[in-house]
């Protein structure tokens, strides 16, 4: 029988019944959770800093080469697998939204960081040497708070995590300032947020442009300038990503996925999928589950 792609919460990965935070050196974490090499999903935020290793890791069906000094960030719901070569080590932090939010007055604080947007171009970062040298001790200090907690250890962990986020964000923010105007950057971010909330029910760029109080031509120009693709393609790509995620669940029929994504009928959904992916949803699912079965062997 085909098995569903696993969905893990923090509690299922921790032996101390902790559902808000899990912090570890990466090598022992891998040794304990060998099942995580195969395709799986998270209900939590997840970040890893590699200090050693090679091979690949895959996020939302896009593969990345593992490099020491690389940090990656994932948000809940993304599909993930690992294909490491040799000894891989570093640091891992899994945390819930509430773990950080309980410490902050500003709601949605994590949305300020582009690497928590779900956009893979922002989520996998090869750190400059000076930034890597600055944040590696922060991870070590977090581990110290876990293994030998002092007074207000949880708050110290939160402070150290925020330092990591801010230091990494400074690297990505400098790149953004150097390449784009702040106005267009904000406009693109708002467009992405609108897509995230409306991709199942709003498909036309002109409708998003109206919500942003700009013309469709302006929106298209910004997307082409900053992303290299038109606005309509950004919308279609988000629909396609969700279709792929849903196809990891064999208990959902193609018709059910088509309905959830608001297609008028199954035939239209299949044509849409094949045009973008050059394969049918059924063929994509068959290959995905076959690859997942090989990973488990």
From TrEMBL:
The keyword NAD does not apply. Keywords: DNA-binding, Transcription, Transcription regulation. Coiled coil: none annotated. InterPro entries: AraC-bd, Homeodomain-like_sf, HTH-like, HTH_AraC, RmlC-like_jellyroll, Tscrpt_reg_AraC-type_HTH. Pfam families: AraC_binding, HTH_18. The keyword Transcription regulation applies. Residues 189-287 form the HTH araC/xylS-type domain. This is AraC-like DNA-binding protein. The lineage of its organism: Bacteria, Pseudomonadati, Bacteroidota, Sphingobacteriia, Sphingobacteriales.
């Amino acid at each position: 029988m085909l098995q569903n792609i696993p969905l893990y919460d923090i509690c299922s990965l921790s032996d101390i019944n902790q559902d808000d935070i899990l912090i570890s050196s990466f090598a022992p974490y891998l040794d304990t959770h060998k099942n995580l090499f195969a395709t799986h999903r998270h209900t939590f935020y997840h970040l890893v800093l590699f200090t050693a290793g090679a091979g690949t890791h895959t996020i939302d069906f896009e593969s990345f080469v593992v490099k020491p000094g690389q940090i990656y960030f994932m948000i809940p719901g993304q599909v993930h697998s690992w294909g490491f070569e040799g000894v891989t080590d570093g640091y891992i932090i899994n945390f819930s939204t509430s773990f950080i939010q309980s410490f902050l007055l500003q709601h949605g604080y994590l949305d300020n960081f582009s690497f928590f947007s779900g956009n893979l171009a922002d989520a996998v970062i090869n750190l400059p040497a000076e930034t890597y040298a600055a944040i590696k001790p922060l991870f070590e200090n977090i581990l110290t708070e876990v293994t030998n907690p002092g007074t207000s250890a949880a708050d110290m962990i939160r402070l150290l995590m925020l330092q990591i986020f801010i230091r990494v964000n400074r690297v990505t923010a400098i790149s953004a300032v150097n390449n784009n105007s702040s106005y267009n950057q904000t406009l693109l971010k708002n467009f992405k947020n609108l897509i995230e909330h409306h991709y199942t029910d709003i498909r036309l760029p002109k409708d998003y442009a109206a919500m942003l109080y700009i013309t469709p031509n302006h929106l298209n120009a910004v997307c082409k300038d900053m992303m290299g693709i038109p606005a309509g393609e950004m919308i279609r790509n988000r629909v396609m990503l969700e279709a792929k995620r849903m196809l990891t669940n064999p208990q959902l029929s193609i018709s059910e996925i088509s309905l959830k994504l608001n297609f008028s009928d199954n035939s239209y959904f299949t044509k849409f999928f094949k045009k973008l992916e050059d394969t049918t949803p059924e063929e994509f699912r068959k290959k995905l589950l076959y690859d997942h079965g090989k990973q488990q062997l």
